[in-house]
Design brief:
Elements (H helix, E strand, L loop, with lengths): L16 E4 L6 E2 L4 E5 L5 E3 L5 E8 L3 E2 L6 E4 L1 E7 L14 E6 L2 E3 L9 E9 L2 E6 L1
Parallel strand pairs: 8-10
Antiparallel strand pairs: 1-7, 2-6, 3-4, 3-5, 5-7, 8-12, 9-10, 9-11, 11-12
């Protein structure tokens, strides 16, 4: 394409939504972490083996058919904190946290077994605030 020589109406997105196609048979609950399978790019629950990093949070319950797209949200969300050596503390703010399951994040990647959930924004008594997407 060549350079424009006049004004144009450039389409815009806010960047807080993402449309994905869930993997056939995947059950994804509203408010949970969502990742994409590395081989197909189809959406699956956070913590699924052979999936990549978190791409968003489900806005509604999803049962995948492998065809129909659904929206995810990006932003800052609260998730359950892991336990023991993987417990996230205030000192970890600004670091990357990792997916344990569809609603829990941890301090470590468990020797590369866990994928990135996002950036730790805050930690309080009942969870970890994570910037997702």
């Amino acid at each position: 394409m060549t350079a424009t020589t006049e004004g144009r109406n450039t389409k815009r997105r806010t960047g807080d939504k993402l449309s994905v196609v869930p993997n056939s048979g995947a059950v994804i609950y509203a408010g949970t972490l969502v990742t994409l399978l590395t081989a197909t790019g189809l959406a699956v629950p956070g913590g699924t083996a052979s999936a990549g990093p978190v791409v968003g949070v489900a806005t509604e319950p999803i049962t995948g058919d492998g065809v129909k797209a659904t929206d995810l949200e990006k932003g800052i969300f609260k998730f359950a904190n892991s336990a023991a050596a993987d417990l996230i503390a205030k000192a970890d703010i600004g670091a990357t946290c990792y997916v344990v399951d569809n609603q829990t994040v941890a301090k470590t990647d468990n020797s590369a077994a866990r994928k990135a959930a996002g950036k730790i924004i805050d930690v309080d008594a009942d969870g970890v605030w994570v910037e997702v997407g």
